[in-house]
Queue: 4 jobs
Job 1
Amino acid sequence: MDYVSALLPPVVMAAFFIGLVVTIVKSQGGPNKAKEDAAVDAAIARAEATRQTNGAATS
């Protein structure tokens, strides 16, 4: 019975990890992809603008 208690935690963690990966893969794309891409692009643009503004002010 010791082998069952030794193998149970890794098996449970593997099952949860596989479920997480499957969920991530399934959520990629779809109808919300354009909205998610736009949100990321806007965040990157804000970060770039802040960086350029701070860089110009310190020069």
Job 2
Amino acid sequence: MDLDKEELLKRFEDYISYNTQSDEDNDQVYPSTPGQMVLARHLKEELEDMGLTEVSLDENGYVMATLPANGVSGKTVGFISHMDTSPDAPGGPIKSRVVHDYDGKDICLNEEKGIVLSTKDFPEIMKYKGQDIVVTDGTTLLGADDKAGVTAIMGALEYLTGHPEVKHGKLRIGFTPDEETGRSPLKFDVKKFNADFAYTVDGGEIGGLEYENFNAANPVVVIHGRSVHTGDAKGKMVNAISIASEWQSMLPEGEKPECTEGREGFFHVYKISGSVEECRLDMLVRDHDRTKFEKRKQYLLHMADFLNEKYGPGTVEVTLHDVYFNMLDIMQDGHMNIVDLARKAMKKAGIVPVELPIRGGTDGAQLSFKGLPCPNIFTGGANFHSRFEYLPLPSLVKACETVIEIACHGWEVK
């Protein structure tokens, strides 16, 4: 398969020129930032120019399109990537450059500001020695998450429309807003998308094939205190901040993100706000095992009961909110054949699949539970959500090849 690396690079650089950083605090508007809609219109025009059918852009920023089958019939395969970039690092304007024939040493991203992509901090980059790597100038993220995914899908479509002799089944394409805020699947119309199964092209380094993710809940803990003048506080003041500290200390030692890996779950307080009178803790509860996940939530309720017994009824209130569940439950219920399809596609592209549980979630997890089985495949990027994000170009090429291979054989799935 002869893919033009320079054309893929040009396409990627075009997409990252759009500042599509989403806003997790703006949950009243879809998409959460105007830049996402600007890129959505651009992608819609490109899809139309390629000759795809049923091209649509709705008021919420979801782009969908169809590449009809050419000479074969069978299952309809979907490919989905998100247009927004993370709010965790500055989102633009992005100034990228290509490090040609990487020498395996530290990369100076910004000499003026002294920003260096260090092999000590990020040793994984050394395995890409000799390759061309796209980096930033150290002042913003790169946006490979997930514009590398968008590029891989669009590059595959360009190849397939330019090579009508290559047979493929019906393909459905979806580009979504606000994945980084966790709201992307909320308004994704699975019925309108009308695919038998799909893949999010939203993974990391080359070979990644993901069909197992955390079960996730985002509890909110509110602690009610009582403020009294400090000069007369003995026996009267109830300091909500002190109780918040006690709450944190009651969480199991070693079961926090900084102490866990693989399939190990955790509790995580990621934001605290408030005063003596009232304090709020925003939390994450994660576990791959559903039974352990439910026990973790119950543990928080037992903590609240203990503190309410100690300080008085109503002192601690816990609101549990499930966000997504482990897609493995869906895959093992008759859909491992689509995981196997991705394995075969990667191997045909000369890639060794790397199958690890996701220590997070994907749109595919929520879509799987909405009736669209949807594993995740790699884009090639690394150090996402960071000024030190990078994208080895050969990995992007292989991501595009993998999409093409799936497209050419997905219709055969029984």
Job 3
Amino acid sequence: MAAPAAWDDPEPLAVSSAPVPEYGSGSLADLLPTLAAGMGVPGMTASITELTPADRNCVFLIDGLGWEQIRSHPDEAPYLHTLLGSSRGGTGRPITAGFPATTATSLASVGTGLAPGAHGLPGYTVRNPDTGELMNQLRWQPWTPPRPWQPYPTIFQLADAAGVHAAQVSSPHFETTPLTKVALSGGRFHGRLTGEERVDFAAEQLAAGDRSLVYTYYAELDGAGHRYGVASDTWRGQLMYVDRLVQRLAEQLPPRSALYVTADHGMVDVPFDEQHRIDFDEDWELSAGVALLGGEGRARHVYAVPGAEGDVLTCWREVLGEQFWVASREEAVAAGWFGPHIDERVYARLGDVIAAARDDVLIIASEREPKESAMVGNHGSMTPAEQLVPLLEVRS
């Protein structure tokens, strides 16, 4: 007689059931190559086939503005809401961020036109195989020579070399950061403090060339989400401000221009209790055999003590497998989580075990990562709330 269902061992989530990003046809990595191809930049491919070429293209990336967050807030973002039908060339569909859905990874995908497995920034923190240390790819700590870490040219560099007027308009703070150097350099960087100054100058830069590729960025929505959550009044106030910024830029577009509003990831709020926040630093099962814990709460890279890789995978799958997609490095690579190709220099940066959250849960590390563990809003995984980002379009 079969045992009652209540006594059955729970089935872990199949690695193959994770919704892999649309690399090669509808991901952030495909955006700038598509726009550059339309401007005649050699070697570029228009992979997002729904987009129509324009002579002047502006990408306004709003950190943390997920597709589902726009759809859920029509009152706070009335202008953005009217543009939902324009997304992805008028199909009314989003694109995908890439895995993990986190800022350093996504900005590198945008700027290089490459998936994470090629550009080599496959997480918030990853192991540096040369030193054995965790490397924070957003803050670039500990300092690592940027060019060997990410050796490919950016799309801005290629466009500039092809005679396109290329420019980035962002906070002055970002001008000299290693992340900007490896992901977004090329042409001219213009630092502007306020959101209004940035969008106004982005419009001027669009008009500065017969062919222009301009990028501008706003980070404060993401900061409000991390600190207060996407259900907070503070976050909604930021969304209202972002809505006005987008409309302000759209109303200043010079002739023959296309504005694309997108994001690096969405966000989910995670409750503060032991059921939703699993503390690695206090969990002897999860920490057994683990040498380093990388990534972030919803997208973990787990580096095992040599020889313990199989045991760590088994344990993480048994403990977390109903709430997380838990894969070995080889399984995640074969499933295409990081793109269709993994560069040899990138392979060892990936965790021996990779855990991506399906449910509203986190693997925090209260002692190692006190600031990150205290965040209300989080992101990183492949759920629609994190992975789907807009590609809203306005043309002049």
Job 4
Amino acid sequence: MEMDAHPPAGQARAVQRDPVIDLVRFTCLFLVVVAHCMMVSPVLHKDGTVTTLNVLMEQGWFTPVAWGLMIVPLFFVLGGVTGLQSWRRLKAQGGTGFDFAQVRLLRLVRPAMALLGIMWGGLWVALLLGVHPQVIQLMTAGAAMPLWFLAAYLTAQLSIPLMARLYERAPFLTFASLVALIIAVDSLRGSIPVVAFANMIFVWCAVQQLGFFMADGFFEHRSRTWLVGAIVSSNLLLGLVTGVAVYPGNMVVNLNPPNLCLLLLGISQTATLQLLRNGIRGIAEARWLQAFIAVAGRRSMTVYLWHLPLLVGMSGLLLLTDLPQPLAGSAEWWWARIPVFFAVVTLLVPVVWLFARLENRPTAANHARGPSRPAVVTAAVVVLVPVADAAFNGLTLALLGGGAACFALAVLLLGRVPTPVLPPSAREGPELGAGHEPTLPEADLRANLET
């Protein structure tokens, strides 16, 4: 069966908000928060030093569980679906790749800027008040994991205009080329370890391409037998390459920097999502659930960025109290994960109330000129430099402050979003109506199409 035709240049397909995408994205975020609550366990030693124990990574049963629940590839698949749809809409309105980059940068960088700035200020105050530097470093590390994901996700999203052009010209050749680049990088990472970080681009762009295929109906038009075959074959290949020790069996180890295993998981997860899509839709279309997820979806980046720093900060502060700390990995410790999860959710409520507005769609400035192309490029570089430094060398208190300053500079460089100039045919289209000037992004776009 043939793949759906791509929209003609300058036109966008009519895209309605997909409740399945909303529900799956929310479920993925929920699983991430739960998993992190089961991982973080700071330990205060008799000599006053503090170390962090990742309890889940110490469990023998976690390796097969991580194989099934490593949902990071699915985030990038969903980002490919919604990103391609958003880019086509923007392009049809007269927008350019630089306009797309500007909106994406603003929506992802503004929430992160607040997190880094407040953490840097708060931790300096704690340091001046006499909190042990190791506790400060423990809390600082709490921002590192959200930042690496932000860097990878932002890089993939900024590539969408270019990757969409390549995809529309030769979808399968583009995907095959990315797979070849992934394998080439993996082949060199043993002798030249630093080259492995190139797969932060190639792996996630390839997984994002799966979202492009899903957005255009490729997976929708495959038979159930084909989808099951894709799931089985990708997992068999994954078992083969991990079983002969080409790659580690633990998917968390394979995550940063990513390798071919994450792409194989992405293929399996994409086919699984399509296989279960009708069943998920029956649940996702419940009105009360749609209303709840619509509210949560507009705050998802704030929840993602803040939940781990809050968890680490809360755990670090508990070390300074006389409260009994159960032994990591004991039955008491596992039972304690339940109140820990609800404590993190409770702490998130005021944080989301204060900072979620930074996730709002950037304001359109009618008849205003947007930032120049060099300003957008400079902003992207200014954002990626500190997060790349953190990925290579670890996050320090100084880098936390430098990152906050860089993110603030990027926001200033990007400014407000101008109204795009549309061709007459687009302006007179049936979706706009006479006398209506659209804004950038389009008014009915929601979190699942814009994050």
